[in-house]
TrEMBL record:
Record bears the keyword Nucleus: no
Superkingdom assignment: Bacteria
Name assigned to this protein: 3-oxoacyl-ACP reductase
Originating organism: Planotetraspora kaengkrachanensis
Ranges in a coiled coil: none
Molecular-function GO terms, alphabetical: oxidoreductase activity
Protein family according to the UniProt entry: Belongs to the short-chain dehydrogenases/reductases (SDR) family.
Keyword annotations from UniProtKB, A to Z: Oxidoreductase
InterPro entries: NAD(P)-bd_dom_sf, Sc_DH/Rdtase_CS, SDR_fam
Length: 244
């Protein structure tokens, strides 16, 4: 699984609770170590790798394959906000900000998907990617990060094309598209009263921000569902069906 905080950590812990051995791939070893410790006997190890880098991604998946004795489920959570690069309304976005945001959110998904499929084709299995509700249900006033939304829309396209390409190999490819989740990436939102009020109206089922464990439940459900492929499941507390 890729990602060691927020949704990634919640998914890893949920999979461990379900009896799965988990190998963690994430950029920061200081985030990987405490998660692996929490996984206890279900931990298969970790690799600190920048999944924007092809050689690092290949090495990380090789390590995971060896540690697990084969890969049958991959959950790709790695990614993050592009605000630090300058992501925002398109007329203000530089080419560098655009490219860096897509590298962080779409290139990581591509390399993770490619390395996953190369292994899953051997015996079948499941890949779950993480998109965003913003790809299809934008909120320009509060979340006007257009490179990020485009990258997440690209993940939805990747799901459809990969599911069609590899269905006869027994490989299932799906995604979840969360709404506003209480993660380290959402610190700005968590500290902004206007966004918090918006979240209470926009995500009424969560009465505000969604907890990572809620998303993890959906990730595990769709990832382990044997006859489901090519789907993007919104886990958004009602965001996509409310007017607020």
């Amino acid at each position: 699984m890729t990602g060691a905080t927020g949704i990634g950590a919640a998914v890893a812990l949920r999979l461990a609770d379900l009896g799965h051995r988990v190998f963690v791939v994430s950029l920061d070893p200081d985030e990987c170590r405490p998660l692996v410790a929490l996984l206890g006997d279900q931990a298969a190890g970790f690799s600190a790798a920048d999944l924007r880098d092809e050689s690092a991604a290949v090495a990380a998946f090789t390590a995971a394959d060896e540690a697990l004795g084969g890969v049958d489920l991959v959950v790709a959570v790695a990614g993050g906000s592009g605000r630090g690069f300058g992501d925002g309304p398109l007329h203000e976005v530089t080419l560098q900000a655009w490219e860096e945001t897509l590298r962080l959110n779409l290139t990581t998904a591509f390399l993770t998907a490619r390395e996953s499929v190369r292994r899953l084709r051997r015996t079948g299995g499941s890949l779950v990617l993480v998109g965003s509700v913003l790809a299809a249900r934008p909120s320009p006033e509060l979340f006007g990060t257009q490179a990020y939304a485009t990258a997440k829309a690209g993940i939805a396209g990747l799901v459809t094309t990969l599911a069609a390409m590899y269905v006869n190999d027994g490989v299932r490819v799906n995604a979840v598209a969360p709404g506003l989740v209480r993660t380290p990436m959402a610190r700005r939102a968590a500290s902004d009263p206007m966004i918090q009020e918006y979240a209470r109206r926009k995500q009424p089922l969560a009465a505000g921000m969604i907890e990572p464990g809620t998303v993890a439940e959906a990730v595990c459900a769709i990832g382990l569902a044997e006859c489901v492929t090519g789907q993007v499941l919104a886990v958004d507390g009602g965001w996509s069906v409310t007017e607020a």
